[in-house]
């Protein structure tokens, strides 16, 4: 595994974000987090993660809307 890969973890349930972030960090990933799709989109645009792990059901902007917006934006369309 390559060090310094950046993962964006998105979930409105903080305990889930916490557990996932711990697991990822312990495996050498840099982790950034967001609590809804809107916040996640801003982070994806500014932080340029290597991959996104997202919940589907969230307030403000759900996971489907978030992924659709990522795909529709040139600078984020290739983030898996």
Description:
This protein is of the alpha/beta class and 80 residues long. 41% of the residues lie in helices and 18% in strands. A three-stranded parallel β-sheet has the order 2-1-3, with helices on both faces. Helix 1 links the parallel strand 1 and strand 2 (30-34). The longest helix has 13 residues, at 14-26. It is globular, with a radius of gyration of 12 Å. The model has no long low-confidence stretch (mean pLDDT 94).
Topology:
Blueprint lengths: L5 E5 L3 H13 L3 E5 L2 H11 L3 E4 L8 H9 L9
Parallel strand pairs: 1-2, 1-3
Helix pairs in contact: 2-3
Note poorly predicted spans: none
Number of strands: 3
Name the strands of the widest sheet in spatial order: 2-1-3
Largest sheet: 3 strands, parallel
Rg, please?
12 Å
Helix fraction, binned, reads: 40-55%
Tell me, rounded to a whole number, the average pLDDT: 94
What is the count of helical runs? 3
- Taken as a percent bin, the fraction of beta residues is 15-25%
């Amino acid at each position: 595994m390559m060090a310094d890969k950046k993962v964006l973890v998105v979930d409105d349930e903080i305990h889930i974000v916490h557990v996932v972030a711990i697991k990822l960090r312990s495996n050498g990933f840099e982790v950034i987090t967001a609590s809804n799709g809107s916040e996640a989109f801003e982070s994806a645009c500014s932080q340029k993660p290597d991959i996104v792990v997202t919940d589907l059901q969230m307030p403000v902007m759900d996971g489907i809307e978030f992924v659709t917006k990522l795909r529709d934006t040139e600078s984020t369309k290739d983030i898996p």
